[in-house]
C-alpha cells in the first residue's frame, strides 16, 4: 500500500515551488476521504451515535414501564435490539 501522505511530502520536498499546490491536493484528497467516511457511516441511515441515543431512551422507557410497541415506535429499535437491553 502506498503512503499517500508520505508521497505528497516527498513531492513537495523535491519541488518546493509547488509545495502549496501539493498541499492543496492533499487537502482535497483529505476532504474526499472525510466525505466518503461520512457517507459510509450514514449508509444504513442511522449512525452509531443515534443508535446509542435510541438505546438509552429505550432503556429509560423500559425502566419506567412503557410498552414495547411504544418503545419500538419512539426509538426505531427492533425487537431483538430491545431484547438485548
Notes on the structure:
The chain is mainly alpha-helical. The protein folds into two domains: 4-42, no CATH class; 48-83, no CATH class. It is built from five helices and no strands. α1 runs antiparallel to α2 (19-42) and α3 runs antiparallel to α4. The mean pLDDT is 83.
Features:
85 residues; mainly alpha; single chain; 5 helices
Total strand count, please?
Answer: 0
Which structural class best describes the helix and strand composition? mainly alpha
- Round the Cα radius of gyration to an integer and report it: 23 Å
How many discrete structural domains?
Answer: 2
SS field, number of helical segments: 5
Shape: rod-shaped
> Which percent band covers the strand fraction?
under 5%
How many angstroms separate the termini? 41 Å
| Low-confidence region ranges | none
> Helix fraction?
over 70%
Main sheet, how many strands, which sense, barrel?
A: none
Mean pLDDT: 83
Architecture blueprint of SSEs:
Elements: H1 4-14, H2 19-42, H3 48-63, H4 68-75, H5 79-83
Helix pairs in contact: 1-2, 3-4
Describe what is shown at a glance.
The protein has 85 residues and is mostly helical. It has helices spanning 4-14, 19-42, 48-63, 68-75, 79-83.
Amino acid at each position: 500500500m502506498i503512503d499517500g501522505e508520505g508521497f505528497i511530502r516527498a513531492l513537495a520536498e523535491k519541488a518546493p515551488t509547488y509545495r502549496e499546490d501539493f498541499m492543496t491536493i492533499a487537502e482535497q484528497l483529505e476532504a474526499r476521504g472525510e466525505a466518503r467516511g461520512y457517507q459510509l457511516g450514514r449508509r444504513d441511515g442511522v449512525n452509531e451515535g443515534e443508535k446509542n441515543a435510541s438505546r438509552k431512551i429505550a432503556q429509560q422507557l423500559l425502566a419506567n414501564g412503557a410498552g414495547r410497541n411504544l418503545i419500538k415506535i419512539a426509538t426505531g429499535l427492533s425487537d431483538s435490539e430491545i431484547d438485548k437491553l
